[in-house]
Automatic annotation (TrEMBL):
Residue segments, region Disordered: 1-32, 645-673
Function: Nitrate reductase is a key enzyme involved in the first step of nitrate assimilation in plants, fungi and bacteria.
Residue ranges, compositional bias (Acidic residues): 659-670
GO biological process annotation, one example: sulfur compound metabolic process
Database matches in PROSITE patterns: CYTOCHROME_B5_1, CYTOCHROME_B5_2, FAD_FR
Name of this chain's protein: Nitrate reductase
Protein's organism: Cyanidium caldarium (Red alga)
Subunit organization: Homodimer.
Length: 932
């Protein structure tokens, strides 16, 4: 049963007259690029597929900090498959219910860092077997239209790979069933560009090789396709410049990418920079060593030894037929209410390659004895030549009682060439093209949410390093098999409740296991688990040391690197230069728990290597560490033990005093509250609302005589248990260590549903906002690598220094460490006073924290200079507008010199894209600025 499809997005365009365009037509398009076509697409999306436009993303994900992609905004819901970097992800299956996938939720396959390209300066070289080679700007490329918009489903060749990895590890990471997305792609037909350059399809000109402007480990990504396919007027091969009516996102190939409908995503080169017409296939590294489906008996060693990589018959180009279940989702629970005639709708997607349309989808509830027809819907009609580039959706309504009687169900699709999906999984070394029947297990369970009995559904796997799925539990023995000889498919209308049938799937033949599977990446399976058990047993025999996280955190330099994986501590110092991913890949996790990243991107061989660097087990703060691991070399201890006596500066008795306290009344023997080894609970004793989205929270210390014990410029952790999970953030108090009995935190509250980028809001800030007087939170510290001592003296990364002028560049809530340092300087009697310059960036005027205090200081003290800049200023705004730029640095910070130090604190993208580059343009050296 097939529903009527939506109309075509637009009809295919006929080839250009005479096959060429005169050079004088290559003139720039309007400033907004291609307004008519994209406006038409957005209007159509708004009417028919509005969800595709409702997921804007502007913020940089915190997981991209310390990676080359720190500038790329990404949706936080995307499931990361390879740790932090490179970025490879898929959307949760629930988002694939929509016929058009939002660009921000489209799956991403990157081999390395995203290149930072500029529309105006980007060039595309077209060369090879042509009458005239040419290099096009983006503006010139658009004139080679007319632009065409085509609905295309993109699929990663590794979609559903994790199922193979549960049988035997492939050399690919763990894609779930979400490596597929559909968008409306707008671009210039590749055939138009080639005709303009005088291509002649003949005996020599047979292929089109395309190369991107990225730079992964194997060099710029490239591959090729037959020239005849590129020239096919109904093949819809495009140089795409827009997705869903908007310019491409960086992850999807901005400013231009190749689009080859009906083929795997791996042939659609992103960040396109070179097109070459050749006599033979591409010689690019990735054309040979990626995107192939080899026979099951070929493992990596055999492929290397016998040069299987170079056999063209194993290239994976056209998509094979596939389908997967979207609803029910993995671990979804269906409550059984006992109502008669209750039904559930199974939903999913199906696609095929080469323009072949899906003709039917079937479902079985009895292990393949009988198959029944699902309702199939085609969101987009085929093009004029009958080629279908977009997925189909299916649904099947089933009685809940029938689900209760079944142990699993499975689906399979058919296309117009009568291709269908195998019941059993067929393994290959790349883990590509997995299209076995998608099987969902059904388990009776207690539904805690509804307080009733229910059915829990279990998919074969869950993507990435996440645990779950029935294949992780049952492994190869449940990977599928040849089902019983099926009966004729039954119509949905005649479906009846069938009795429960035991699972009759037999075990598929296990692919050959090699003693050394070679370079395998990304994924946890039964073989890795066994290997990790061996590592654990060996560690136990050695009598492991007990190490606290505080100790691990001190080992984060290139001369001394520790990491934590699965509660075990490893010293990787001597492996830095040998690491195939480079030094940076380890240093971004130095001194931290990197279990998720390590599990996501490392192989069995890597686990073997890791075992040789094991030094002990991680323990929590309640267990005693070994004596020689005591907290010893931190900035905090240097300040406490070496600096208090000779660096103490009494406060000023008149105009320079901030507050009413006098340091002469300070008792140096006041007890210290903070302990870097353990958390302490402190009560909320007061709360002052400063603005609609900011508050001052005052927390009490153990006694009126206690001081916090936090060096100026350091911060502390605040921890709370929220919805059963521990949430922890670092904050800098606005009160100094001279205050007794309490400390203040000025915090911006990020409430739920106030910003589309963060629908859940900030967990900890909202928790603090809900606190009542007397409620408690946990604190621990101090921590930080910078501390201000007094009279211009400071300690940075354990090294002392003295300056006469401080500069600060802050954004949003990053003002608090600078505020604390400025406050401490204003309490000094030192002459001449240390001078301070502050450039403070925010989105709007209402976001400026501590504004009254800052501007009062600037008015009262000649050594304080404050400059604000806003992205969205109000009328009459007297300060700066926009992001921090070189002009602001030169005008509102002190000139660079040996007696100047600039502290930075704010969003990572502000630091990396605004602060650091403009400081360097203004002449600052790297040692003259730091991040708090």
């Amino acid at each position: 049963m097939t529903s009527k499809p939506s109309p075509l997005v637009n009809e295919p365009t006929q080839p250009l007259a005479n096959g060429t365009l005169p050079n004088d037509t290559l003139r720039p398009p309007p400033v907004d690029l291609f307004p008519e076509e994209t406006a038409r697409v957005r209007e159509m999306l708004q009417k028919q597929f509005p969800d595709a436009l409702q997921h804007p993303v502007e913020a940089v994900d915190s997981r991209d900090r310390k990676t080359p992609d720190v500038w790329v905004p990404r949706h936080p819901d995307l499931v990361r498959l390879t740790g932090r970097h490179p970025f490879n992800c898929e959307p949760p299956l629930r988002y694939l219910k929509q016929d058009v996938t939002a660009a921000e939720l489209h799956y991403v396959r990157n081999h390395g860092a995203v290149p930072q390209l500029v529309w105006e300066s980007h060039r595309i070289e077209v060369c090879g077997l042509l009458k005239r080679a040419a290099t096009f700007t983006m503006a010139q490329l658009l004139v080679l239209g007319p632009l065409r918009t085509v609905p295309v489903t993109l699929v990663c060749a590794g979609n559903r790979r994790k199922e193979m990895n549960q049988v035997k590890q492939t050399i690919g990471f763990n894609w779930g069933a979400g490596g597929v997305s559909t968008s409306l792609w707008t671009g210039v037909p590749l055939a138009n560009v080639l005709r303009h350059c005088g291509v002649e399809c003949g005996k020599r000109a047979r292929f089109v090789s395309c190369t991107g402007d990225d730079n992964p480990s194997g060099g710029p990504y490239g591959t090729s396709m037959p020239l005849a396919m590129a020239m096919d007027p109904y093949g819809d091969v495009l140089l795409a410049v827009a997705q869903n009516g908007k310019p491409l996102l960086p992850d999807h190939g901005f400013p231009v990418r190749l689009l080859v409908p009906g083929w795997i995503g791996g042939r659609m080169v992103k960040w396109l920079s070179r097109i070459e017409v050749t006599e033979s296939e591409s010689t690019n590294h990735y054309h040979y060593f990626d995107n192939r489906i080899m026979p099951p008996h070929v493992d990596k060693d055999k492929a290397d030894a016998e040069r299987w990589w170079y056999r063209p018959e194993y290239l994976f180009n056209e998509l094979n037929i596939n389908s997967a279940v979207i609803a029910p989702d993995h671990d979804e629970v269906l409550p059984l209410t006992g109502r008669k005639q209750e039904r559930y709708t199974v939903q999913g997607y199906a696609y095929s390659g080469g323009g072949r349309q899906v003709t039917r989808v079937e479902i079985t509830f009895d292990g393949g004895h009988t198959w029944e027809m699902c309702e199939v819907r085609h969101p987009f009609a085929p093009n004029w030549a009958g080629r279908c580039w977009a997925w189909s959706k299916f649904r099947f309504e089933v009685d809940v009682l029938r689900l209760f009687c079944a142990t699993e169900f499975a689906v399979r699709a058919w296309d117009c060439s009568n291709n269908t999906q195998p019941y059993a999984l067929i393994w290959n070394v790349f883990g590509m093209g997995n299209n076995c029947c998608f099987r969902v297990k059904i388990h009776p369970t207690h539904d805690a949410v509804h307080g009733a009995f229910g059915l829990r559904f279990e998919h074969p796997t869950v993507p990435g390093s996440n645990t779950g799925g029935w294949m992780a539990r049952d492994g190869p023995k449940m990977s599928g098999g040849i089902p019983p000889r099926p009966h004729a498919a039954a119509a949905v209308e005649k479906a009846t409740v069938a009795p429960a049938v035991p699972d009759k799937a037999v075990a598929a033949p296990k692919p050959p296991t090699h003693a050394d599977p070679g370079k395998t990446v990304h994924g946890s399976n039964i073989y890795q688990q066994a290997l990790r058990n061996q590592v654990n047993q060996a560690a136990a025999m050695d009598g492991p040391r007990k190490i606290r996280m505080e100790e691990v955190e001190k080992h984060r330099s290139e001369d001394d690197v520790w990491i934590v994986v699965k509660q075990r501590v490893y010293d990787c110092t001597h492996y830095l230069n040998d690491h195939p991913g480079g030094v940076a890949a380890i240093m971004m996790n130095a001194g931290a728990d990197c279990t998720e990243d390590f599990e996501a991107i490392h192989s069995e061989r890597a686990w073997n290597l890791l075992a040789g660097h094991y030094i002990g087990d991680l323990v929590d703060g309640d267990e005693p560490p070994e004596p020689h691991l005591d907290y010893s070399n931190s900035t905090a201890k240097l300040l406490r033990e070496q600096l208090p006596t000779d660096a103490h500066v009494p406060s000023q008795a008149n105009g320079g005093v901030v507050g009413d306290d006098d340091d002469d009344d300070d008792d140096d023997d006041a007890p210290i509250t903070l302990d870097p080894r353990k958390y302490l609970s402190v009560p909320l004793i007061d709360k002052v609302i400063l603005s609609p989205n900011s508050c001052r929270f005052r927390f009490g210390l153990p006694s009126p005589r206690h001081r916090l014990g936090l060096p100026v410029g350091n911060h502390l952790f605040v921890r709370a248990r929220i919805d059963g999970a521990v949430v922890m953030r670092a904050y800098t108090p606005t009160t100094g260590d001279e205050v007794r009995g309490f400390f203040d935190l000025v915090i911006k509250v990020y409430r739920a549903n106030e910003h589309p980028k963060f629908p859940a809001g900030g967990k900890l800030s909202q928790h603090l906002d809900r606190l009542s007087v007397g409620d408690q939170v946990d604190i621990k510290g101090p921590l930080g690598h910078f501390a201000y001592v007094g009279a211009g003296a400071y300690v940075l990364n354990g090294q002392r220094g003295v300056v006469r002028r401080f500069g600060f560049m802050c954004g949003g809530t990053g003002i608090t460490p600078a505020y604390q340092v400025m406050q401490a300087i204003l309490r000094e009697r030192h002459q001449p006073p240390v001078e301070m310059w502050l450039v403070y960036a925010n989105n709007g005027e209402e976001d400026i924290l501590l504004r009254e205090e800052l501007e009062a200081w600037a008015e009262a003290h000649e050594n304080v200079h404050v400059w604000h800049t806003l992205v969205s200023p109000p009328n009459g705004w007297k300060y700066g507008v926009g992001f921090i730029d070189e002009g602001m640095v030169r005008e509102h910070l002190p000139p660079p010199g040996d007696d100047v130090l600039v502290g930075l604190c704010g969003p990572p993208i502000m630091i990396e894209k605004a602060c650091v580059p403009n400081l360097e343009k203004a002449g600052y050296r790297r040692e003259q600025y730091f991040s708090f």
